[in-house]
């Protein structure tokens, strides 16, 4: 097993004291440096001997990838990898691995929780009770549609792991579920009881539209003015995927103009969201701080997946999750 150097770019509090990583990497005979970098220059200077980089939130850009001569793999402690320059890594023969399984159920649960809260108008009812407007709902209820679960249609955009998990849960609630995903075979949808159809039909028929797509050039601002205008005025939008999938300016206009009934957002175009952003003042939205992934048990799974990717490479094996498999011909595993 090679005496490789493993470098962590950014620490997060709920992994401290990184005991799982320290013990595992010591058993591999590898050095392990924990850091908390703020700039690319710091990463390049401090990780100059790194063979493997572990990254949580810090973006791994082209400049970093091209400046580390020994770099063999970047492991992302997350499902999403849009902040890593995949093209630069592939060109250099650097493996990019993520942790795709650790929060599948958690994100689906979070999306479902937001959906149900919006469908039952819990936020506005809770506010009304606190403001002593008990029973005075006549002028309010039409602006906040209260939907019946087994009479509602869920439209899922992106039928990957999380989308499928959510679909199963909502089918068990008696909801009709339809989906759009051009990269998933029809048989997958049929096996779930979820028809895969064109995006416009999903948007137009759904009472709730839930987004479960990665952020790519194709999905950037996918939810724009046109998308929102195709939704029912009584429909709700849920986003637990990536903030930049939604054009927040268009969403704010749609909410203000009653184009749609409301939204549940765990992710935002800029994070953290600006303290004076108009979305914070809207009664039609439920907002959470990019924590759909979290549960009391998920962090152990997340770390174990990252450690397993490092372990595989150290053994001369191909990691289970590689997001740029086209790099394989350039890699000579010992």
Characterise the protein shown here.
This protein is of the alpha/beta class and 334 residues long. The chain has two domains: 5-102 and 296-330, NAD(P)-binding Rossmann-like Domain (Rossmann fold), CATH 3.40.50; 104-287, Rossmann fold (3-Layer(aba) Sandwich), CATH 3.40.50.720. The protein has twelve helices and eleven strands. The strands form two sheets. Strands 7-6-8-9-10-11 form a six-stranded parallel sheet, with helices on both faces. It has a five-stranded parallel sheet with strand order 2-1-3-4-5. Helix 10 links the parallel strand 8 (208-211) and strand 9 (236-239). Helix 1 runs parallel beside helix 12 and helix 5 (104-119) packs across helix 7. The model has no long low-confidence stretch (mean pLDDT 94).
Provide a short characterization of the protein structure:
With 334 residues, this protein is an alpha/beta fold. The chain has helices at residues 19-27, 40-46, 62-67, 86-92, 104-119, 122-130, 161-172, 186-192, 199-205, 225-229, 248-256, 298-314, and strands spanning 5-8, 31-34, 52-55, 73-76, 95-97, 153-157, 176-180, 208-211, 236-239, 262-265, 285-287.
Topology at a glance:
Layout: E1 5-8, H1 19-27, E2 31-34, H2 40-46, E3 52-55, H3 62-67, E4 73-76, H4 86-92, E5 95-97, H5 104-119, H6 122-130, E6 153-157, H7 161-172, E7 176-180, H8 186-192, H9 199-205, E8 208-211, H10 225-229, E9 236-239, H11 248-256, E10 262-265, E11 285-287, H12 298-314
Parallel strand pairs: 1-2, 1-3, 3-4, 4-5, 6-7, 6-8, 8-9, 9-10, 10-11
Helix pairs in contact: 1-12, 5-7
């Amino acid at each position: 097993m090679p005496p490789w150097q493993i470098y962590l770019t950014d620490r997060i509090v709920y992994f401290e004291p990184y005991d799982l990583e320290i013990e595992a990497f010591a058993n591999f005979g590898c050095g392990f440096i924990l850091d908390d970098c703020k700039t690319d220059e710091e990463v390049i200077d401090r990780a100059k001997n790194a063979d493997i980089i572990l990254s949580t939130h810090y973006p791994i850009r082209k400049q970093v990838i091209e400046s580390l001569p020994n770099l063999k793999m970047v492991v992302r402690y997350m499902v999403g990898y849009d902040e890593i320059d995949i093209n630069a890594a592939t060109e250099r023969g650097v493996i990019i691995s993520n942790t795709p399984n650790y929060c599948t159920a958690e994100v689906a649960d979070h999306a479902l929780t937001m959906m149900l809260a919006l469908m039952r108008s819990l936020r506005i009812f809770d506010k009304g009770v606190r403001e002593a407007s008990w029973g005075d709902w006549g002028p309010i209820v039409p602006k906040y549609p209260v939907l019946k679960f087994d009479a509602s249609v869920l439209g899922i955009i992106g039928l990957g792991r999380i989308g499928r998990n959510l679909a199963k849960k909502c089918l068990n609630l008696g909801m009709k579920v339809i989906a759009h995903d051009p990269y998933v075979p029809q048989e997958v949808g049929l096996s779930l009881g979820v028809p895969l159809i064109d995006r416009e039909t999903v948007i137009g028929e759904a009472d709730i539209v839930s987004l479960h797509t990665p952020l790519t050039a194709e999905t950037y601002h996918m939810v724009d003015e046109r998308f929102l205008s195709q939704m029912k005025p009584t429909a709700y939008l849920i986003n637990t995927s990536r903030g930049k999938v939604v054009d927040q300016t268009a969403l704010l206009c749609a909410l203000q103009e009653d184009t749609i009934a409301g939204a549940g957002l765990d992710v935002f175009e800029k994070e953290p969201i600006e303290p004076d952003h108009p979305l914070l003042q809207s009664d039609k939205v439920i907002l959470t701080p990019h924590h759909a992934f979290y549960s009391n048990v998920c962090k152990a799974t997340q770390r174990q997946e990252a450690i397993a990717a490092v372990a595989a490479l150290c053994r001369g094996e191909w990691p289970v999750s590689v997001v740029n498999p086209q790099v394989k011909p350039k890699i000579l595993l010992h």
